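Lesson 9: reading folded outputs for more than one chain in a single document. The general rule is that every protein is listed as its sequence immediately followed by its structure tokens, and records are never interleaved. Here is the first one.
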Amino acid sequence: MNDLSALIAQEETASGSAAFQFVLLAAVPLALYFLMIRPQRRKMRESAEMQASLAVGDEVITGSGIYGFITAVEDDLFWIEVDEDVQLRVVKSQVHGRVSGQAVPAGDGDDQDESDES
């Protein structure tokens, strides 16, 4: 009789364990969605909005680290001027961002070398 009650108790814990495993199995794809897929989609959407908002004259940086000014926009391309009379044709998806701060030209600095002050 004692063996029968132990067998029944073991069966009850096995069914509870199966329910927990099912819940865990359903929770893994849900967690993957919220931790990996959803943030990546948000990042892609923000990148597409940024690329759509770029216009001629904006200073941008490419994926390879090249800074330049947009001189023309085609279907899926930007023409970027990186120096005087040097333009690159770049795919829109490789433009990673708009440069926020403007650099001060090298000749316009008011600070002098400390060796010149003596």
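And here is the second record, again sequence then tokens.
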Amino acid sequence: MIAAVPQRDAAAGIATPRAQQPGITRTDLQRHDLSIPGREVIQTRVDLAPEVVAPRHSHPGEEIVYALEGTLEYRLEGRPPVMLTAGEVLFIPDGTVQAVKNVGSGNAAELATYIVEKEATLVVLAE
């Protein structure tokens, strides 16, 4: 696996990949420690332009996806594809390799809530 290089946003205290893939915009909204030692919650809005694919990747913890707009196709390793439209949700277990594609003709967006290992690289690209 290849890890994305984190960059710390000093004002928000959020580590994000330095370079965003063209057509994908990640907007970090909040980050907080949890009552579980060594874990934190991070919320991020992820926007994908039409036909853009977020490459295969994983996260160091659970991800809860809430589709905000558009139509997104999720491919989770070992499972059939899942389509989400606005208002639908998806739970992605810890370490699951995944890819997501905007299959619509307009912008697609999700609210991603991560329950992850504190200070770990949030997005880990898969080979």
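What the second record shows: Residues 1-18 have pLDDT under 50 and may be disordered.
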